[in-house]
Amino acid sequence: MAAAGGSRADNGYGSGSQQQPRRRKGPGALATAYLVIYNVVMTAGWLVIAVGLVRAYLAKGSYHSLYYSIEKPLKFFQTGALLEILHCAFGIVPSSVVLTAFQVMSRVFLTWAVTHSVKEVQTEDCVLLFVVAWTITEIIRYSFYTFSLLNHLPYLIKWARYTLFIVLYPMGVSGELLTIYAALPFVRQSGLYSISLPNKYNFSFDYYTFLILVMISYIPIFPQLYFHMLHQRRKVLSHTEEHKKSE
């Protein structure tokens, strides 16, 4: 489901519509400077995660259980994306607060409520699948926003943002779904986060069932966002090619 200084209407994997922060005198310049710093820090953070994965792989000679090598920075920088909701709420980024919150919280949920909470899944290869997809995506995405804010966007970064999602989005979604699926038996056995009756609040909650519903929600959401992203890719890259020919 989903994971800056621009729109996240792309499920965090790529080609959402390019939207720039509102430019205003005084506060506008400050907001832009803040967003540049934020995106540079987030780009660097995800680069740290990428380097950590590569170093751990070279040291171990295996891709198994690489999650432990990047667990802390992954939690920190993925949680740092929560600031994107505030960016929308305060109006420094013209995106939907609800949509951004949904996309950011979906990744934060998977990071903390699934992968962190169900220790048994941390050794599963499916975790690495979404971690790699997220890492590549976020390096490109935050770089894209940084250069866009500076009005100096290299074509290679634009092309990568509007092209690599074709592979990264299905890869990330597959890793997310497989991780949730792998967590199900452990959640059911432990009763994690579940609330049973009777209790003084007269309220019950079955986290196992909730996770199943989360998985089912991918069915209508994934195709809609994926085809939207393909449409945006054709629109943006074809416009870029036409602009180059006119020069």
Summarize the helices and strands and which ones pair or pack:
Blueprint: H1 27-60, H2 67-80, H3 83-89, H4 97-116, H5 125-149, H6 155-161, H7 165-190, H8 207-246
| Distance between the amino and carboxyl termini | 40 Å
Instruction: Let me know the largest β-sheet.
Output: none
Shape: globular
* Count of beta strands: 0
Number of helices: 8
The topology string of helices and strands comes to HHHHHHHH
Q: What's the gyration radius in Å?
A: 19 Å
Low-confidence stretches: 2-7, 17-27
Key attributes of the depicted protein:
70% helix; 247 residues; mainly alpha; single chain; globular; disordered N terminus
Question: Can you tell me about this structure?
Answer:
The chain has 247 residues and is mainly α. Helices cover 70% and strands 0% of the residues. The protein is built from 8 helices and no strands. It has helices at 27-60, 67-80, 83-89, 97-116, 125-149, 155-161, 165-190, 207-246. The termini are far apart. Mean pLDDT is 90; it is low at 2-7 and 17-27.
Give the structure's gist in a few sentences.
The chain has 247 residues and is mostly helical. Helix content is 70%, strand content 0%.
